[in-house]
Structures are given as C-alpha cells and as structure tokens.
Amino acid sequence: MNLAHRQLPGADKRVQLMATCLCDAFYADVARATVEVLEHLGCQVEFPEGQTCCGQPAFNGGDWPASRRVVRHTVKTFAGDLPVIVPSGSCAAMMFHGALLEFEKEPDLPEVQQLAHRTWELADFIVNALGVKTWPGKFDATIALHRACHTRGTKTCDSAVALLTSIPGIKLVTVGEVEQCCGFGGTFSVSFPNVSASMGELKLEHIRAAKPDLLVSPDMSCMMHLGGLAEKEGHPIKIQHVAQVLRDALKNAGLL
Amino acid sequence: MATQLIDQFAKNLAADTQAAVYDGSKKGHEKRTKLLFDTYADPNRLRELAGEIKQHVIENLDTFLPAVEAKLQSNGVKVHWASSAEDACAAVLGIMQARGDKKIVKSKTMVSEEIELEHYLDKHGIETLETDLGEFIVQIDHDHPSHIVKPIIHKNRREIAKSFEREGLGAYNDDPETITRRARQFLRHKYLAADVALTGANFVSVESGRMVIVTNEGNSRFCLAGTKCHIALIGIEKLVPHDRDLGLLLNLLGRSATAQQLTVYTEFISGPKSAGQPDGPEEMHVVFVDNGRTDVLASECKEILRCIRCGACLNVCPVYRQASGHAYRSVYPGPVGAVLSPLLAGKKFPELADLPKASSLCGACNEVCPVNIPIPDLLLRLREKGKREGAKLAAAGTPPMGAWSLLASQPAAWKTALFGGKIINYLPTKWLPIPPLRAWEAKRTLPEWKGGEFRSWFRNRKVGAVAPNRPDRKPESKEGR
Amino acid sequence: MNSSREQILSRVNAALAPLAQRAALPDWDREMVILRQAQGLTDAWPLFAERMKAVNGTPLTSVAELVALLEKNNWKHGYCDPALWPSLAAAFPAGFTVETTYDRTRLDDYSFGITAAAGAIAETGTLVISDRGTSSRLGALAPWVHIVVLRRNQIYHDIPAAIAALPQDPNVIWITGPSKTADVEGILIEGVHGPGKQIALLVD
Q1: Residues B24, B150 contacting (CB under 8 angstroms)
Q2: Are C118 and C84 in contact (CB under 8 A)?
Q3: Domain count of chain A?
Q4: Is the residue at B163 inside a domain?
Q5: Which of C9, C24, C136 comes nearest B278 by C-beta?
Q6: Of B235, C35, C64, C98, which has the fewest CB atoms closer than 10 Å, so is most exposed?
C-alpha cells in the first residue's frame, strides 16, 4: 500500500467526508455516525455534494478508462487541500493506492497523487492524524472485528482495535483464520458466486464460533456480503461499522 | 448471468478433492506463519529485503547473465541457452544424443513442466522418470501437479494405493509409510540405471556460479550420485548476486514452502564431480530458459519474476483453497500462476485471460510472499490488459462499466439514481433486468435501499447542533444542490 | 544454440532499456537472518545437538553409543570412509561387516554409511558434507542410516557463517535431519530416497 505521505489536518480541523457509494445507497447511518464521531473530535466536516463513487468497481473490473473517468470526477469534487476522510478501507485504498496505479501514465497523475496524499480511512485518521488513542463512553457488547482485506498494510485495523478495546464494556473476541477474506471482492461476488459464497460461509463459521453479539468492520462492503449471506440462510447476524460503535458509545454515556 | 470458469470448476470439484486441497493448504499456511514469527522478530522486513534483492537481479539481468555464464564455464559447466520451450527441449535432447544416452531420472523442476519436456523426449525415444514422490505419482497417473510444492495435494491415500497396485508396486495398501517405502525400493535401482540426471535449480549465485537445489526427499542427491551427466534447466530469473544472499533466501524459502528452517537437503553445486569422487556426473550442463520470461521482463508485471516458487501464496489463497490447482489450467496455479501463466502464454494470453479474475484482491498472497511481490497490483494490470484486448474469458460475469462510469461522473444523474434506486425495496429483483443484482441475490439478501437519506440528514440538520461552541463553523458546500 | 543466446540477451537489453533507474541492491545485516533462539548462544555443540534433535536428527558423542544404537536395531552391515575406519574399527565388535569400498551393484546390502563432515551449522542442526571430503556420494546417501563424523571445531554458529565458509568444492550439501516427505495427505514420513536416520558423531 502506498502510504508515503499523508496530509494532517490544519488547526481548524476542517475535513471533507467521502461517504462512499455504499453508504450513500444503503448505509446512511454509517455516514451519519462518521460525521458525528468527527464532529465530536472537533472536526468541521464538509460534504461535497457532487461526490459519487471512488471508481473502484471499474478499476477492479479491468475497465481503467471508465474508472479514470470516475476518479477524475472525484478529484474535481474533492478539490482543495483538506484531509478527505473515508469510512471504508477499500474506498480509501482505492484513492491512495489503486488510483495511482491506473494513472501511472496519465498526464493528470499529480492531481490524483495530491488527493491520494490527503485521503484517510476513518479509524486511521482518528488515531494517527488526530492522535486520539482511546475512546470514551460505554458500549456493552462482545465484538468480533472483521479485518477488511483492503486495510492490509495500513494502520486501520490496529487503530480500530485500539479504539474499540479502550471503550468500557467492549470485549473483543478473536476470530479464527483472521487473514482469510470474506469473499466479497466487488464484482468477484457476482462473477465467482460459488467461491465467494463458500468463502463467506467459512468466515461466518469462524465468526459464529467466537460468539460475538456484534460483527464490526471498517468496511461495509464485507458486511453487506456477510450480513446478506447470513440473512439468506435464515440466521442473521448483527453488523455495524466501527464509526457506529464509536458514536453509540458516546451516546450510551450521554456524551453525544 | 455468466460466471467465471474457475468458479464453475470449484462448484463441480469433488468434495473429497476440495477437502484435501483446503486442509493441505490451510495447514501449510498456519505452520509457515507460526515458524516465521517464532524464529524472527520482524519477518516482514526479511520479505521486503528478499524482494529488493530479487528485483535488483531482474533489473540487472543484462549484466548478470553473461557474468554467471562466464563463471559457470570457468567451473567446468557447459552453458546452453533456450529462447523457447522447443529450444529448451531440443537442447536437452541434443546433449543426450551426443552422448548416446537414453534414460533420464528427474528431480522436480517446474521449468520442465512448462516446456513439456517429458512428452517431447518420449517422442524421441528417451525415457524420463520422475523421482520426487509426488511427481512420480503424477507421472504414473498421467495427471498434472496441482501445487508448486505439493504436487499431489489433490489426491488422497486411497487413490495413490490404487495407482501403486495398478503399476505392480504391491498389493493395495494405503498406509502412507508403506507407499513411501515401496517408492523408495522401486526408485533407488532406477537412479543407478539412468544415464542423465535432470534437475532445476532454486538459485544460481552470479558471484560463484554455485547453483542451489533444495529437496526434502533426497531424490536430487540420488540423481546426482547415480548418473554420469547432470543437466539443469534454469529460468533466466533464478540468479542471486552473491552467495551471502542465499543466507536470506534459503531461510525464507524453507519456511515459506514447507515450514522448515531449512529444507532437508540444500545442495550447492558448482560443477562436475571432484576428481577422486567415485559417484556422480562427469559432465554438467546448464540450460538457461527464456520461454516468455523476457516478455514478462518487458511488461508492467516484471515483479513476478522475483518468485522463488515456494507456494505460500497458493496455501493462503481462499480461491485456490476452494478451486484447487487444476482449476487454473496451467503449470503455475494459485495467485502466482494467475499472474505468471497468462504472461508466459504469450500470444495465447486470451486463453488464460480469466485467471487474473480469480481473486477477491484480498492481498493475502502479497502478505505471505517471501519476495514481497505485489500480486494484487499485477492481477489488476492483467485485468486491464484482458479488458483492453477484449479477452472474452476475462469478461464473463463482470458487469459492463461504461454506463456506470457515466452515471458516477454526473452528480445530478447520480442523485436521481440514488432516489430512484428505492424501487428495489418494493419490487422482487427477478422482475428487474439487472443480472449482477440477481447473481447477488442468488446467494445473499440485499440491504434496504436508503439512497439519499444521509444527504438529506446532512443538509437539514442544524449546524452546530451536534458539536456546539464552534462559532467558526462554516456552512457546507453548496455545490450541486 | 548461440542464436538463442543472442536473442535472449538482446531481448533482456530491450526490456531493461526503458528503465530510468535500476533497483539497487539493499544492504542488510547478517544478524537479521539468524534464528532468534540461537542469538547470543556461543557454545556450539549443545546448540547444534538441540537443534538437530528438533529436526529428528540424532547427535551422538561417542563411538560406543553409535555401536550400541546400530546393534540394537540390527544394522550390522555398513560402509565406512576408508580414511575414517582405522580410528573407528576398534569399537566395532565381531558381527559387524563394514566395507570401505561402496559397491553400487549391492546397494541394498548396506544398512549404514559412515562419512566425514565438512562442517556443521549449530542454529539449524545441519551437517555439511562436501564432494572432496566424502569418500562416496552413494555411501553417504543410499543406506538407511547415515553417520557423519564431526569435530567440534567444524561447527559454524549460523547460516551466514556457513555460507561465508562454503568450501571450494563442486558439491557441498547441507543436511538438516533425515530424508522426508509429506506428499501423501501431508503426513510426515521419514526415509524417502535418502537416510531415514541421520546421525552426527562428535569425535573430540
């Protein structure tokens, strides 16, 4: 992962939110929780209304011209010099790693790099940009953290673990074969439906064996797949984003 | 909606084969990880270093290849070059015909699989015998290896016992120890009756011309004790600059491949046998094989040439575990194969263009790779190549992205779609002409559509209501409202 | 064949020509690759013996021990390096047949082979043999039991030290435990083509 240089927020802590298309379409509360968490930390959150998607579906699908069209739109939409906060490991990685690959030979690579250097996944931003290493509040639950694959090689999961374990009431359980992917993989989930579902079943087995009250992830795409599989087979599991847990911990203790 | 060939292969894979591949690769991965982290404080730094060393090698092959050639020649080794599979086969045949040799005993070499040497030599009346236990079983079964390090990971003991019975190696007995002893007894006399030992090499030091061959079974040693001529088939990327680099690479290879600090036999070979030694080759040949490697070197995926063939990426790969090695329809399976095989295929790239799609891009392969190859990035580059060149196999199951990208670059249309998407909350998806959606719902439910809800909340909430005491707060951007 | 050579080298040159700069060779500290458990340990034989046992090898410190082990298992017919045999013969009682020329036509006759070490590696329990120091490649490989005669001052602490001291010899072999395979269902079986029992005999 390309994590060479990342821009820290200024004294006014103004940031831009990249809500992601999944939150825009399905997980509105995750985006809302992200705003509430950032504002609790004193950030001024701006939401560029023109935002759509990070370009990842076409990038992963091999259609780089299509992906670059979306990335160019995103670069334009998030113009400026504020840190861009993304409540998704994979969309963040698309901005600071994937986009750089597909723009390698493009004349506007510098503009894409400029955005790459400003893009942060939420938990990583809280811990490593804002220096917040513990989280107040209260949250009574046994939690399994799903390590979204696109956070490999980044500080997202260590950051999320640090924050979650510092919250009074939370017990984090270990899940078997933690390095294994849940099987989502974007379009992989529909072009490899059997392998994708088998991977998800294995992941669910490990998660259920750990007996958590709640499955938490820094990426809703994995959760959409795992939650959807579990519900389809008639044994739904409760899923949440890290941001929702952080926000609810504040609410539970009357801090929000 | 069309699905990918490898997904279909996985779906139709026999349950016991799938279980054998899954268990074998999972155990391999777990042992590897435990040993690496038990023995080293920072294994990841070692992987990065090894990757840098191998990258240095492949980017300096122009000087290293002539240098190692000169070194080998001064060590008494005859050096041959083969730009294609055909050339490599012909080189081996030429050496044997010049000597009047007829029989080969072979230690495991992936290059020989790649060039289909056995088939070629057979046509020219040369008998080849595999001596690695797994490869021997593959040979008697007329099968193909399904793993780089564990060729018969897909077979169980009962199948092997039946094969041994069929080949006259004893009455049915599926005890792994009995199987092994029978192979031992059968093969030890074959080494002595053969003319030529054929091996690959794991590394060749440019500094000293030493080639390194590692085996656990000792079959390579037996080949090199029983015969009078040694031929080594070596990919041009197998070089290391100095002997000292082997200290790092051997430690990583043993741990990554089979969870050993060192493979049992690590042989450093720099020439024909010494003068007083009664056993072993009096003549030694190295055939440097290109067979597509220079194309890879010229491509945007040259990092794959760092590969030291340990198989760790296969073991950790969730797709390999489900689909097995044969799903990849090529000599190199798994993540490394999904990159290397289509590249080595050259003009036949379209026939293997689907392999790079066989990944959720989870990155586990990169995380375990002892030479830190950025496999997911290389898979992505090959997906782009497949799309650009219109490879049909690659396209199966991937929704077209053109219309989507237009939508996603026009905010007004995007917002309309966000609100319009609510229709999926009310309509059964079988009524909707959206194949990916149906494919999704065949295995999973879809969450409730909440398109635009966040935007409404963000726009309508009272500024400062959530985080008070912030008079400096500016109103939100009005763009696109 | 020569045309292949020129073709390959010209293709390599063409492939590398566009590179603005070549990846540099990194510098690294030999300490990095040394087994964490072996760092700081300097007494070579105990470390070697412990590590060799960990890979199912058998370290012995006296000829008497060796003879007892061979007798107990009824391994009575063997091969021995002619240069080593004079110093060992006295310890072998009647009933043993030890040949100092290996006859490859009778390879199943030998149950053990005794050859000389060219070195050993403590951190991995590895024995080092070389072509010039080994009287017969087959004698060191084909019998079920292989005994390597080793002196204390031949033991290197670690792999980097053993590599730095690789002898000028066409065939140096590091042996780390007995021959083995896990090809059948991942089950470990020792003694595939090479020895099922690997012994180090310390003679000083």
Answers
A1: yes
A2: no
A3: 2
A4: yes
A5: C136
A6: C64
